[in-house]
Specification:
This protein is α+β, with helices and mostly antiparallel strands. Helix content is 34%, strand content 19%. β5 and β6 (143-145) form a beta hairpin. The longest helix has 20 residues, at 46-65. It is elongated, with a radius of gyration of 21 Å.
């Protein structure tokens, strides 16, 4: 569509309504309607959408070429719930747990950046890409705190997502 738009702008082909809408969207730094139909629903401007798309494509390509990422960028997955379900299924099969009696346990780590995680978990995954809104994270004491003035959204540190049998899950505090 970009090649067709370039050709239409120089007069090699006729300008259609679809190409005209694409040109207007690009001029306004928005995602074109023809492209919007082919991607997950988003309200992002074109620049931030391209940045997100490139990061997402890089994660998928690394997963294909090398292996599963040591630290999964959860915001880059189209359906994160299916990945987390797969984590539970993998651990349940390996440990002979009943699937319907298994769940996920999450724990916020002291790692701020995904590059700080050096080794993948045997069962479960490290995840990054979650945010806090209306609160902040105290890295020293690893707990929620009041948000700073005029800072509405903050990144959450790397999180461990660990499959566990429901009967062995003990929550306290």
């Amino acid at each position: 569509s970009l090649e067709d738009l370039c050709r239409a702008l120089v007069g090699e082909i006729g300008m259609s309504d679809v190409l005209d809408a694409l040109g207007d969207a690009l001029f306004n730094a928005e995602l074109g309607p023809a492209w919007r139909r082919l991607c997950p629903d988003t309200q992002k401007a074109l620049g931030s959408w391209m940045s997100h798309f490139t990061h997402r494509q890089g994660q998928y390509q690394g997963w294909i070429d090398v292996s599963e990422p040591v630290c999964m960028w959860i915001s880059g997955l189209h359906v994160p719930e299916s990945y987390m379900t797969a984590l539970v299924q993998k651990a349940s099969r390996a440990r002979s747990w009943a699937l319907d009696k298994s769940t996920l346990y999450t724990k916020v780590t002291r790692h701020v950046l995904p590059d700080e995680v050096v080794e993948a978990l045997t069962y479960g995954s490290y995840m990054v890409g979650l945010y806090l809104e209306g609160a902040a994270w105290d890295h020293g004491s690893c707990m929620l705190k009041r948000q700073e003035p005029k800072i509405l959204v903050v990144d959450l540190p790397v999180i461990e997502v660990i499959p566990i049998e429901t009967s062995k899950l003990r929550l306290a505090g």
